Hints:
heterodimer, A: alpha/beta, 8-stranded mixed beta sheet, 4-stranded antiparallel beta sheet, 29 helices, 17 strands, elongated, disordered N terminus, B: alpha/beta, 5-stranded parallel beta sheet, 13 helices, 9 strands
Amino acid sequence: MSFIKDIFKGKQNQPAPKRKSNSSFWMGDNLLDENSDAIEMNSYRRSIANFVRIVTGKQIPVQFNSEDHSFTDGETVVISGVIKNGEFDSAVGLACHEASHILLSNFKMLKELTGFLGGKGQKPFQTGLVNDQLVLDVMAKYNVSREYAEKYVIISLKNLLNWVEDRRIDYHIFSTSPGYKGYYHAMYDRYFHSDIVTKGLLSPAYRDETMSSYMFRIINLTNENRDLTALKGLNDIWNVVDLKTIDRLKSSEDALEVAKEIFDIIEKNVEGFDSQQEDQSDMQNSQDGEGEEGEGEGQGGGNGQPDPHKDFKGNDSSKSQPQGEQMEGDMSNADDAEGDEEGEGGKGQGEASDDTSDGEGEGEGEGGESGEGEGQEGQGSASEGDGKEGEGEGESTNKKGTNSAGGSGGKTGNGQPLTDEEAKEIKKAIAQQREFINHDIKKDKISSEKQEELKAVESSGSSLETVGKSYDNGRGSSAKIRKNGINCVVYRNMTKAFIESGACPFSYKNYWSGNRSDRGYEQAIVEGLQKGKILGKKMQVRQESRQTYYNRQKKGLLDNRLVAEAGFGNSKIFGHLDVEQYAPAYVHISIDASGSMSGKKFYQAQVASVAIAKAATMVQGLDCVISYRGCTNGKPAMMIAYDSRKDSISKIRNLFGAICPTGSTPEGLCFEAVLDEIVMGNSKQYSYFVNMSDGEPGFSGHIANTGEYVSYGGVGALNHTRDMVNKIRQRGVNVLSYFIGGGYSDHSKFKKMYGKDAAFVDVNNVMTIAKTMNKLFMKKANK
Amino acid sequence: MSKVETNFTSHAEAMSFIHDAQKMKPKQLFMSPLKWKYLVRSVIRGKNIMMTGPAGCGKTMAARALEKALGRPFFYFNLGATQDPRTTLIGNTQFKDGEGTYFNESLFIQAIQTENAIILLDELSRAHPEAHNILMTVLDQGQRYLRIDEKDNSPTIEVADGVSFIATANIGTEYTSTRVIDRAMMDRFVIVEMETLDKDAETNLLTMLYPEVPEQKLEAVAEITSMTRAEVKSDDARITDAVSTRAAVELGSLLYDGFTLAEAAEVVIYPMFSDDGGGDSERTFVKQLVQKYVDDGSDEDLFNIEDMDDDQW
């Protein structure tokens, strides 16, 4: 038995071979590239949310935003949705990190600590969470008002606590989830172990005894190039934190105690407020989070030579007053997010001081939801300036500037002094780190156009459906399709934003803003609505129902009036009710929106389908869905443009003019993708699938997973389409297929796919389809 | 009380037997003490028992454990595999040269005539409807007979004293090929709902079965399976099926045979989940879950503290 155990020791301790990325474990090696379309991006973004579920074991709602924020309030996790290839691992690490906050952090305690800043709850000095002596010491040391001292203490503690707490919870997941270690390494490498951070740690910068130097070096204590001699108190802080035994901290309360000890060490060594005082800029920038409907005007940086007394004593306090909404939930807090979303977009302001590096107002202008806060030119921000607001450059007053990203002076590090460029990069890295510990992670910028596209695609309810696994053309390529399938994009909700984003494959992006040539099918909609009205009036008889009661029956429901006759030997004392009415009906109109349909064919198809949809709105019990099929970015695409069960006819009136044909004809693949969406038919409800097309199925694109280029066509595609049509029929759906115009070399092919009932209609006579449908809708059903 | 009590000299003896039931439970069977006690009590009182629960949760195992614990005659009938219920449950008429036709009674008839027998009707929910019809009278405490033929005055077989029927069934929409067991049939049984094992119980089971495999690995298996079960029950489930205890045991056996957890998951777990939909697929979720427990070979030192010079400390 021990022999077997030895084998296990060898085998089981052997780590898995290193992959090129941790995410490839579940994504395969087919990672997203720069050209990945929005659908794929959404699909993989959504799957990152799974990690939150796995780590927490709870149903925590995960939201994606394109606002570049990642945080949690303990009930929801918000993850920035902008993820590039190569950054998946760090993005997953971030999702795990936020999830672990939910699992392990005490949000109540955090609120108790910072709530008073926003006017909520008692001060932590009153509840005993924080010793009042800390405030008194700060007041005495810096000669500042109590109000300012309180804020200074709490904001400093909050930042330190966030850092300690992050290490505590990160280590917990890291050590209990051996498969997720790579995600954490990727996250740490990105935020704390980057080359520029290392350079900053080794440089002479951040060696003066200021709070900002301490914060920079504490935040980067996990970097192997930490220099514990860089600051007087750093070694003591290192010993207090004791990362080797970080798992001794079992709760957020334990982390707070460590944060207090660190604060104590810093205060013993810091000689005064430094020009780069991050806390000060924090406090000033707390205005960003006020949520003033996009009017937040955060200061891009602290003043070059701040006069602490001006702010500390409360003069001009209307500007320097930290607003607790922003700060109160930095583990993080939903209020925080709210504030950010609404209030971001400030100006990079600040005066450059002589001794600061380059005087550039760093940061990125963020309009937030309201889009009002545009970055404006900063005016020489001295500090790293939080970097949240105002993307602008100011003139440096220190033209020589070879130092100092975080303050000058102090000891000399072993590394080279930083160049202006490096100092700028360090500022950015610091801003990013500070956002990290405050859970306000900015992901790499993505163009606003791409963001809009992502949002629009999200609103389109798109998904990828793997199809084509039964396709067989007798050649090797079909075997690949059978193995992996082809991802068909299904858009379930066509919206104006979706069309305007350009992500919609079946529409003119510039329909509303472009020239008249983009409005070629507008008239078809007008015509269809008019004809639909006429059809609808004819169908109004569908509203009627007739009830007939048959009495004196041998079976059925007991007829009360005849009960007495039972005593006289009459056994026919039952009755039943016959209800004769028009059966509810469902019609799914699927239009081939391939390029060959362009012109009159598509025009007429639009007229007929819109007419049916309009008529359906005028009677009860008739549901109509209109979908278009084609392809996009090497994938089959199916767009459900209208569904009378949830859309009003105004959608057709307003949006359908923008729809246009494009691409090829992946007929059967598209049908397969929406099989489950077609309402089943039975004797009580009629269901119709109406197909309008003009050519044989054909498509070239990529297969799922491997992305190999394959073709779908010929006899294999005919058979596959036929099989899908048969599957639709098996659901009790009547399939009516119309071939519009000439083009088929062999009519038998069309009939092979759609059955002998398939009809050929002249391009000038497409409205016959609507009239045929009208007759079918008038079929009655007995109930 | 019932005739079964004749096995005991007094009610007190029966009570004592029931309350000592826990001692009879085999170690391999992970079942709550209350349910095991109820099971034992139901058998000694001659009740019919319906064991329900998801696939692979140990229903059949519990029934077999009962047989061993009580030392009673045991008969097993897999009704899910029965194509001709009449032949299986009653028998058929055969012809022999010189002797003419004769009735060849089934094993089931012998079983019901065996006193104190435990008869396991496995997979009752998959049984042919005709089997349900045949069993209706057999299972009814007021009737307890089997009619050989439908003809008038055809012979009937009485169910012997102390015979207890234990049926197993999967109940739920996720089980295909199962049939709805009608109310009248259900009424003939007391229901013992088998719970799926929780993480700790499953770890214990796996550790007991495969003591050579590092417990950490078996714990990982148990965590994966229990998480899939929790996920299936959630309102917004990412997966539609859970990994059963049976599959967990199979995973354990693969680990025992030297497979890594990643390899075992690939052959046992992933095929259970569809990969349709790319990032949105069930398989993606399960892979992400399994990944948590598969060491990725990364450095153990997240904080870069292992290689520090001593003077840095």
